[in-house]
Design brief:
455 residues; alpha+beta; 2,3-Dihydroxybiphenyl 1,2-Dioxygenase, domain 1; three-stranded mixed sheet; 20 helices; globular; binds 2-oxoadipic acid; binds nickel (II) ion; dioxygenase activity; HGLS
């Protein structure tokens, strides 16, 4: 019997290899990693309670390795093959994001691990967008783009071979995993050579910068990697002194005692010299660095409240500096309960339940009210971290790195069915994942106290 390594081990190796490659390719990303590590260290020193909480819940180990990346592909075939590539690493498509609403002609999903153990080990996610050529108005330009895309193969023969082998065997041996990581990395590498001449690039660029980015290169170069910070406001403040040009505002909810969902910001994309076919030469701007701070996952009810408050604040924040923007957000979000107990009682956020030592000793008891059990110290509830993305924030990240305020151009074209058809599989619903995780943890905690699970 050959010994196979786990999908999670392969993901861990791959995410580290990807980070090393990106540090090599984009030196500013290395600076960003250092800054994030420094601020995380200081935050943990200042707040031992936070350090302890992260430590007891497996969040501390993953902090240093945690990151997401993003890529954009041009065809259904590319997307479907990527799904198989990510499956080798235990990553499945979760969530559907329609970015056409925000003037970006793509729709997206996030490939990520889903079970607790895998998330604790390394929650590496890749935000993956599919270009929607059908949204380009000019038939001539549409055909030209499709023709260019049809000529490229973004996977090496070795990557295809290892993917098929993993599908047949159930996973890969140590040596095959090494080969897989090296071959898969090639798909995401930056190529200084464009596949077209500058005239073609400019024509596509004029329709939308993103179209040029997807169509004119050999493959879906990783366009950013994103480490997780414990204090995004502080990193944003320190970015300029460290030589980075941060985007104007931090996306997502404001700073809170109980962080919710996801806050994100980035340093702006760099203009890079590019070799075009023919004599005329130019540059391309696509690659940047991002940081994120994650909080608790919200229920459908919590998410509806978030969306409503965000909508309200957006009417008042246009054009504001980050400081003023954050002040308005804080004011508007005063309506969003900011204690774990309230988030739980009002059913706004997801929690994971565990029996305490005292609970295990108490054995069978009659009380079933979850809040009473928590008050009695028999079970604990801890916020479940949000592992996904936010379409409005994603649009803000896209826009600050692509330019473009043509927000209306492609609006109103969500098409989840078409996306799933291209992908060759349905996307998993993220809310269902959190709800199942909460439910099974609560069932287990109650069962261990001798209480029948509540339905
Ligand atoms: C993806 C932008 C969205 C995020 O973290 O929400 C994103 C892209 O630019 O390809 O990365
Ligand atoms: Ni991102």
């Amino acid at each position: 019997m050959t010994t196979l390594v786990s999908h999670h081990e392969i993901r861990d190796r791959f995410s580290k290899a990807m980070s090393a490659m990106y540090q090599d390719e984009v030196p500013q990303y290395e600076t960003l990693l250092e800054l994030v590590a420094e601020v995380n260290r200081e935050t943990l020193e200042r707040d031992p309670e936070l350090a302890e909480r992260l430590a007891t819940h497996d969040e501390l180990n993953r902090l240093g390795v945690e990151r997401h990346g993003a890529i954009r592909v041009g065809s259904a075939e590319e997307l479907a093959m990527l799904r198989r590539l990510f499956a080798v690493m235990g990553m499945v498509p979760v969530g559907y994001y329609d970015l056409s609403e925000a003037g970006v002609p793509v729709h997206s999903t996030a490939f990520r691990p889903i079970d607790d153990e895998a998330l604790a080990r390394n929650p590496f996610r890749v935000f993956t967008s599919l270009l929607r050529l059908e949204l380009i108005e000019s038939p001539e330009l549409r055909e030209r783009a499709a023709g260019i895309l049809a000529k490229r193969d973004i996977f090496t023969p070795g990557a295809r071979e290892m993917i098929e082998l993993s599908e047949r065997q159930g996973s890969l041996t140590d040596e095959q995993a090494e080969r897989f990581v090296a071959e898969a990395l090639e798909t995401f590498r930056w190529h200084q050579d464009a596949t077209v001449d500058l005239d073609t690039y400019e024509a596509l660029h004029a329709e939308h910068r993103l179209i040029a980015d997807v169509v004119c290169f050999h493959g879906p170069h990783i366009n950013h990697l994103t480490p997780r910070t414990l204090d995004i406001d502080e990193v944003q403040r320190r970015m300029p002194a460290a030589g980075m040009n941060p985007k104007e505002v931090i996306e997502g909810p404001p700073r809170r005692a109980c962080p919710i969902l996801l806050r994100q910001t980035s340093f702006k994309a760099l203009e890079e010299p590019t070799r075009f076919a023919g004599d005329r030469q130019g540059t391309h701007t696509a690659r940047f660095g991002e940081i994120e701070q994650r909080g608790v996952a919200l229920t459908a009810k919590g998410r509806a409240l978030y969306d409503r408050l965000l909508g309200e604040s957006r009417r008042r924040t246009a054009g504001l500096s980050n400081e003023a923007h954050q002040r308005v957000l804080a004011e508007v979000f005063a309506d969003f309960p900011d204690s774990e107990a309230e988030l739980r009682r009002q059913g706004l956020a997801f929690f994971e339940y565990r029996t305490t030592e005292a609970g295990r000793e108490a054995g069978a008891i009659a009380a079933t009210a979850v809040e009473r059990l928590i008050e009695q110290g028999l079970i604990t509830a801890r916020p479940i971290t949000y592992e996904d993305f936010l379409p409005v924030s994603a649009a803000g990240i896209f826009q600050s790195n692509l330019g473009g305020d043509d927000s209306e151009a492609y609006a109103g074209h969500a098409n989840r069915e078409a996306f799933e058809e291209a992908l060759g599989a349905p996307v998993t619903d993220e809310l269902t994942l959190y709800a199942e995780r909460e439910r099974s943890s609560l069932d287990a905690a109650l069962t261990s106290l001798g209480i029948p699970p509540v339905r």
